[in-house]
């Protein structure tokens, strides 16, 4: 989602500490360290690997094999063809009375070796099968004979009882694309937005790059791909995120919203109690690997590595580079309310605290009348400061307030009990949603701990939201957790008739621990400056959220089109109408088909998309002509999306080539130009991954309204969207108020008009209502007014399946 801003803003700082070294030494050392980090991660997962590394076999299969060998031996058969006798000869001679024991040990060792060889063979076979991507490139709804054969073989070689990390050892590594193909695709992607003169110059730079530097840089990437788990992901995390010196707020973080039309309870402490309990239940399932791995087509697994750092994780600032600190466990959460910090334990001697007990603890914090200490109220603004500034202040803070800092950074996650209400209102639906988004993305600049993996925000009227730090994982991971949280706290845990958590308080629980910060005088000025900078950033962000309810995913499917491609082409049309020109468009997609894969960029502004947009603006074009051009644009977008998912994208390869060139001190004008480009339109779809948790037909209001992120460029837009059920698409638009070229509300109107205009090209879309001005405020107000402001257990489903 928000990585587009970081991707265009990074400037790697690669030095050799002033020493004179061979040009190749730094990159070889970095490749070696990448591999070393990969192997260390494998070793740290030893217990998980023991539990899941036997997949798709099982420990019971070893017992069966051992028993079969013992039975054969009893029947005077030797399935080992003499190997067990040789193993017995190598064992110590403990005397005649232990002769039978030596035979049992020899059989056990032979069974273990045979079992290990079987597992290794199954892993290799499954990895080879999962390297096939022909199924991804086939037209939707069509399945060739090779793909059918592949599916059958995957079923054969896959185990039945899978755990979250079961497939990790069987996932293929991300391939390094051909550098010639990457450069060709890049030139194709920029052709629609460059003049003839600029494109000719870029082509010359590209040819010079291919002739002089490409083969050497490519060789180093190939070497890294053989040695490390992924040739790009660790560098992506380090140079795009951890080495960035910008503020995390707006520039890097993203937010996720609550239900749009429903608030299960207006009691703030109760909502916090259920939500925190649900999040900790998710962590419990995560630790026990009871969360099922995500499977495409119900068969192709995605990498699960990013799940490891959801909880107990903090980004620690450094002078030149941050690092991610992850703890194995944490039994408390850090809570912020009215400028004060608290430590709230999440467990008792009998286990995880009940939702009602957690509600009691949060209510005690809300009722605590003690004021914030001087400067403490605005302390968290330091986490929104430039990273080098925060790193310097934190070194002083660690000495003067080590216990309080450790309580926050070592928490499972951060909770902010906001003093203001949020969410959709009857009085001003559109403005209230915009304010809700802005509160989640930036808040007041000092009421979120932006370093934590995520902050749970609970507003005074019971509305929820998340603010997520981006470096540790991408949106689908936190989205998966958020879907579980909303479904569990509302449908499974529920609320009593008076809006409180079910159950009874526990008066024996100790009071939440107030954290006191001994802040030296010298950092007071730093806090004030950080707060001023955070307020400037927060005040400059222009957020706009609107549900488009004229049609949704079901209509697009009836047109036999990809819903994502449909929206992306509408966005191209809307942006052209907004700015009068085409621009580089960043659409994020995942590469988790590969081990430790993260994201890739789909460059959605294609020649085919531009031809379609021009046809829509040309009154002489007929609808059949426009429809034909639209289908060509959709097909092109689909081919780019599938190529990116299968490791044949453009931008991550160019990024990795650029990093190697910096290590080698080889200046490439072509790569410099590539990484100086600005993404004026950054887009992302929020996936709905666990449809079974929500009954969208009987309870259509109980679906998440998605989330958003800041713009990638000072004069650009950030646009995310989510398909809510079958008939609504919710858009989240951001831009900067300081720009005279952008306006989030104006683009929102263009998006609505573009969607309706595109839909009118199809017979079913011609029955839709014509363009309507504004942002459907009347519809929103009617929808909001038709429901109670707060819906408790009586409106929620009494149960849900597949938990």
UniProtKB/TrEMBL annotation:
Residues passing through the membrane, by range? 50-75, 104-126
What positions does UniProt annotate as the active site of this protein? 470 (proton acceptor)
Catalytically driven reaction(s): S-hexadecanoyl-L-cysteinyl-[protein] + H2O = L-cysteinyl-[protein] + hexadecanoate + H(+)
EC annotation from Swiss-Prot or TrEMBL: 3.1.2.22
Q: Does the keyword 4Fe-4S apply?
A: no
Please, which domain of life does this record's source organism belong to? Eukaryota
Q: Which InterPro entries match?
A: Carn_acyl_trans, CAT-like_dom_sf, Cho/carn_acyl_trans, Cho/carn_acyl_trans_2, CPT_N
A Pfam family for this UniProt protein? CPT_N
Bilayer disposition of the protein: Multi-pass membrane protein
Q: What's in the GO CC field?
A: AMPA glutamate receptor complex; axon; dendrite; endoplasmic reticulum membrane; glutamatergic synapse; mitochondrion; postsynapse
Q: Where is the Carnitine O-palmitoyltransferase N-terminal domain?
A: 1-47
Name of this chain's protein: Palmitoyl thioesterase CPT1C
Organism (species): Canis lupus dingo
Q: Which gene encodes it?
A: CPT1C
């Amino acid at each position: 989602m928000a990585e587009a801003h970081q991707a265009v803003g990074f400037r790697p700082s690669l030095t050799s500490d002033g020493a004179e070294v061979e040009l190749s030494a730094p990159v070889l050392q970095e490749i070696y360290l990448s591999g070393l980090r990969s192997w260390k991660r494998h070793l740290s997962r030893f217990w998980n690997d023991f539990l899941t590394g036997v997949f798709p076999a099982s420990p019971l299969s070893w017992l069966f094999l051992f028993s079969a060998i013992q039975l054969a031996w009893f029947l005077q058969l030797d399935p080992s063809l003499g190997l067990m006798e040789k193993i017995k000869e190598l064992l110590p001679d403990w005397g005649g009375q232990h002769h039978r024991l030596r035979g049992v040990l020899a059989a056990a060792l032979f069974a273990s070796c045979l079992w290990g060889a079987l597992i290794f063979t199954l892993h290799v076979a499954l990895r080879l099968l999962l390297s096939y991507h022909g199924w991804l490139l086939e037209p939707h709804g069509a399945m060739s004979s090779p793909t059918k054969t592949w599916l059958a073989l995957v079923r054969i070689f896959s185990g039945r009882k899978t755990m979250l990390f079961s497939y990790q050892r069987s996932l293929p590594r991300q391939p390094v694309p051909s550098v010639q193909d990457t450069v060709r695709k890049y030139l194709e992607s920029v052709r629609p937005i460059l003049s003839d003169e600029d494109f000719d110059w870029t082509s010359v730079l590209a040819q010079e790059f291919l002739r002089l530097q490409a083969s050497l840089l490519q060789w180093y990437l190939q070497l890294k791909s053989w040695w490390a788990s992924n040739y790009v992901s660790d560098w992506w995390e380090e140079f795009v995120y951890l080495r960035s010196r910008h503020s995390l707020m707006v520039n890097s973080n993203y937010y996720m919203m609550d239900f749009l039309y429903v608030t299960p309870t207006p009691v703030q402490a109760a909502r916090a109690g259920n939500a925190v309990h649900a999040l900790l239940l998710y962590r419990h399932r995560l630790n026990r690997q009871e969360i099922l791995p995500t499977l495409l087509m119900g068969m192709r697994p995605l990498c699960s590595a990013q799940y490891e750092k959801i909880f107990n994780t903090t980004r620690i600032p450094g002078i030149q580079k941050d690092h991610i600190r992850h703890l194995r466990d944490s039994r408390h959460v850090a809570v912020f309310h009215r400028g004060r910090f608290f430590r709230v334990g999440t467990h008792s001697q009998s286990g995880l605290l009940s939702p009602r007990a957690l509600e009691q603890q949060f209510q005690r914090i809300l009722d605590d009348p003690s004021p914030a200490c001087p400067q403490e109220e605005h302390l968290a603004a330091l986490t929104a400061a430039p990273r080098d500034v925060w790193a310097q202040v934190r070194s002083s803070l660690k000495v003067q307030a080590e216990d309080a800092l450790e309580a926050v950074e070592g928490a499972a996650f951060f909770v902010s009990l906001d003093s203001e209400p949020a969410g959709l209102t009857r009085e001003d639906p559109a403005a209230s949603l915009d304010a809700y988004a802005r509160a989640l993305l930036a808040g007041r600049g000092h009421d979120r701990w932006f370093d934590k993996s995520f902050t749970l925000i609970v507003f005074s009227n019971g509305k929820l939201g998340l603010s997520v730090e981006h470096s540790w994982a991408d949106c689908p991971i936190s989205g998966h957790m958020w879907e579980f949280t909303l479904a569990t706290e509302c449908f499974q845990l529920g609320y009593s008739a008076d809006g409180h958590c079910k159950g009874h308080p526990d008066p024996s629980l100790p009071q939440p621990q107030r954290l006191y910060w001994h802040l030296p005088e010298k950092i007071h000025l730093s806090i004030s400056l950080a707060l001023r900078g955070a307020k400037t950033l927060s005040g400059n962000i222009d957020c706009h959220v609107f549900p488009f309810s004229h049609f949704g995913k079901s209509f697009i499917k009836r047109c036999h089109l990809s819903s994502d491609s449909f929206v992306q082409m509408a966005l191209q049309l809307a942006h052209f109408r907004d700015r009068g020109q085409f621009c580089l468009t960043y659409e994020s997609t995942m590469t988790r088909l590969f081990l430790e894969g993260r994201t890739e960029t789909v460059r959605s502004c294609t020649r085919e998309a531009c031809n379609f947009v021009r046809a829509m603006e040309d009154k002489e074009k007929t609808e059949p002509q426009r429809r034909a051009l639209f289908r060509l644009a959709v097909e092109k977008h689909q081919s780019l999306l599938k190529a990116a998912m299968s490791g044949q994208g453009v931008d991550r390869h160019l990024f990795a080539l650029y990093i190697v060139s910096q290590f080698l001190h080889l200046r490439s004008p072509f790569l410099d130009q590539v990484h100086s480009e600005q993404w004026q339109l950054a887009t992302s779809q929020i996936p709905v991954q666990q449809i079974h948790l929500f009954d969208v037909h009987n309870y259509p209001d109980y679906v998440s309204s998605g989330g958003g992120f800041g713009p990638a460029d000072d004069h650009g837009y950030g646009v995310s969207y989510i398909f809510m059920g079958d008939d609504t698409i919710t858009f989240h638009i951001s831009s900067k108020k300081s720009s005279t070229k952008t306006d989030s509300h104006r683009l929102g109107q263009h998006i609505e008009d573009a969607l309706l205009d595109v839909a009118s090209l199809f017979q079913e879309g011609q029955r839709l209502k014509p363009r309507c001005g504004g942002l459907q405020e009347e519809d929103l107000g009617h929808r909001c007014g038709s429901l109670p402001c707060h819906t408790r257990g009586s409106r929620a489903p009494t149960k849900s399946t597949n938990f």
